[in-house]
Write a structure and sequence with these properties.
- About 50% of the residues lie in helices and about 10% in strands.
- The protein is mainly alpha-helical.
- The strands form two sheets. The chain has a three-stranded antiparallel β-sheet, with helices on one face.
- Strand 2 and strand 3 (about 65-70) form a beta hairpin.
- Helix 10 crosses helix 11 (about 315-335).
- It is elongated.
- The termini are far apart.
């Protein structure tokens, strides 16, 4: 066993299966409308290549589908799976010369669905563009490092190459849509390629040479005004009552014209009486007598000022102040006339 390469995949020859296949197998794939023109032009090349492997193919432009079938001349049982991958790649906008390479034994394909990995459409478009890079530079670097053909089309990424490269491509594509930049993986692949060339490090662990990127949790700016979410109710808010609704509720809507006028006059008189009462109360506030404690406090202040100049005592000053206030109130009551002597005797 020393001279045998166990990793080599031997080519399947016709002599190994001279009897062919027992039953017919078939696969069908739909293609979009915009691919119809290109497929009609390139279909003769596809038919010719598949015929060499004993596979029959059909292009149905009415239904928009491509189909492949095994025939009596088919000797390779796995070639129908390769033919199925071929029509899948053709429907995903892969050029026909490139897609036909999948029929080779050392070439496989993987169609990565990226549409359902993220809900936000804007983020999805930006991250898909990040995978392609400026002028396709990121995608080209990925192809060179993995030895795979990669095509980004719509919600899928088509990749062709060996199994090892396809596994790396799938991981990078899915991480890119999950917000991990492909440049980190590209740096790691470049370092691994250089380390593989060194014979001394070929069989050692490369963890100490690979970069370790730390995740940065960047805190977002909190909004100044935090809106509190209202409790969800399946019912719409109540409609605001109109003027007619308010009149119906109060009973005014059902009154005739004379009754409405009478009600309006009654409301007007009520408002007028309320205003008159308020004005009267405001006028009477000027005639309210001050409280005794206020008068005594004011008298003390006056007596204190006069006592310094040698005037009468505080008790006499209070009595004279009370007498003057009573005289003033009587003169205002009698319309400015002077009081009678009897009144003066009563005061004395």
């Amino acid at each position: 066993h020393d001279g045998i390469d166990h990793w080599n995949i031997p080519k399947f020859e016709k002599e190994e299966n001279p009897g062919g296949l027992v039953d017919e197998s078939s696969f069908a794939v739909l293609f979009p409308k915009y691919r119809e023109k290109y497929l009609r032009e390139s279909w003769p090349l596809v038919t010719k290549t598949l015929k060499e492997h004993g596979i029959r193919c059909e292009l149905n432009l009415v239904e928009g589908s491509m189909s492949v079938f095994t025939t009596r001349k088919t000797y390779d049982p796995y070639i129908i799976i390769k033919a199925r991958d071929l029509i899948k790649l053709l429907s995903r906008s892969v050029p026909a010369p490139q897609a036909l390479k999948v029929l080779q034994d050392d070439t496989n394909c993987d169609i990565i669905k990226i549409g359902g990995l993220i809900r936000n459409t804007d983020k999805f478009v930006k991250r898909r563009q990040r995978l392609i890079g400026p002028n396709g530079s990121t995608l080209k670097a990925l192809e060179l490092l993995t030895n795979c053909y990669v095509l980004v089309q719509g919600n899928t990424v088509s990749a062709m190459g060996n199994y090892k490269g396809l596994k790396i491509v799938r991981r990078i594509v899915e991480d890119c849509i999950k917000n991990i930049h492909p440049i980190f993986h590209i740096k790691e692949l470049m370092i691994k390629r250089e380390l593989a060339k060194d014979e001394t490090l070929k069989n050692e662990s490369w963890d100490r040479f690979l970069p370790k990127f730390k995740k940065k949790n960047v805190q977002r700016k909190k909004p100044k005004v935090i809106r509190q979410k209202k409790e969800y109710t399946p019912f719409p808010p109540a409609q605001t009552p109109s003027k007619v609704d308010l009149q119906i509720e109060s009973g005014e809507y059902f009154l005739n014209k004379r009754q409405q006028q009478a009600k309006q006059f009654e409301d007007k008189m009520e408002r007028q009486a309320r205003k008159t009462e308020e004005n009267k109360r405001r006028r009477e506030e000027a005639f309210v007598a001050p409280r005794e404690d206020d008068i005594s406090r004011r008298g003390k202040d006056i007596s204190g000022g006069q006592g310094q100049a040698g005037t009468p005592s505080g008790a006499d000053s209070v009595a004279s102040l009370v007498q003057s206030l009573k005289k003033k109130a009587k003169t205002q009551h009698h319309g400015g006339k002077q009081g009678s002597p009897a009144d003066d005797d009563d005061v004395g």
